[in-house]
Write a structure and sequence with these properties.
Strand order of the largest sheet: 1-2-5-6
Shape: globular
Largest sheet: 4 strands, antiparallel
Number of domains: 1
Distance between the termini: 28 Å
Radius of gyration: 19 Å
Structural class: alpha+beta
Length: about 230
């Protein structure tokens, strides 16, 4: 397959440079996307990988079961945190929302999906196997996708489309109980404001969740793995 041959040819020169650049992100995920298109079973087996490949190559996405499921899961978590039953623990439910929202993109599983596909195609997996390479890769990727929305399609939100897969997820979001719609997530964006979000490790990426009511929830994006995760 052409995409496999091109990755096998170009990745060694990337590793010799000992530095990854934004153009490398577009090239790698573009070629991996071609592999996924050629081998349809990979899309179902590695949904996070499929999502990131498409996300990187488009200005925004609104046609993906993985997106809809993520928006629904975060909506449910926010709903639990904002509609606490009499016997509920507000802090515990808030922590569930923060954990769900912060990890909704499942970056570790995205790395493993990329590693498995490259390995199965006989392509060098240095980029997923070494923490320094992966940290650089994911930081550049997050910059690339920042502010590109993942969202429900406008025709679904407006009630024009009520038969699609997207609407089946959106209908579940609409059924959540907050009367002001503060628990109904319709869009998420990766945000990076280096002037505002800084710590000792550098810039912090955040996720911004937009509700049907126009309220924004912002959480720090998690998914950075420690060295032990790369030893297997």
């Amino acid at each position: 397959m052409k995409a496999v041959r091109e990755l096998k040819r170009e990745l060694p020169s990337l590793y010799k440079r000992e530095q990854i650049e934004p153009r490398d992100i577009i090239f790698i995920l573009g070629k991996v996307r071609e592999i996924l298109e050629n081998k349809g079973e990979y899309k179902e087996e590695y949904p996070e990988l499929n999502l990131f490949c498409n996300w990187c190559l488009h200005t925004g996405l609104s046609r993906s079961k993985t997106i809809y499921r993520a928006l629904l899961n975060v909506s449910k978590a926010i709903s639990s945190a904002t509609n606490v039953p009499p016997d509920g623990n507000p802090q515990e439910l808030t922590n569930v929302f923060l954990d769900t929202g912060s990890n909704v993109l499942n970056i570790p599983r995205f790395r493993l999906g990329l590693k498995h596909v490259l390995n199965e195609q006989g392509i060098d997996t240095i980029i997923t196997d070494r923490k320094n390479w992966w940290d650089s890769f994911i930081k550049l990727l997050l910059h690339e996708i920042s502010e590109k929305p993942l969202e429900f399609p406008a025709d679904v939100i407006e009630g024009i489309d009520t038969k699609s897969q997207a609407y089946q997820f959106y209908k579940q979001v609409l059924e959540l109980p907050n009367a002001l719609n503060h628990d109904k997530i319709i869009c998420l964006r990766v945000m990076n404001d280096e002037g505002k979000f800084e710590n000792k490790n550098g810039s912090i990426f955040t996720l911004q969740f937009t509700t049907l009511s126009g309220v924004h929830f912002v959480v720090e994006l998690r998914g950075k793995e420690n060295e032990s995760a790369f030893s297997s």
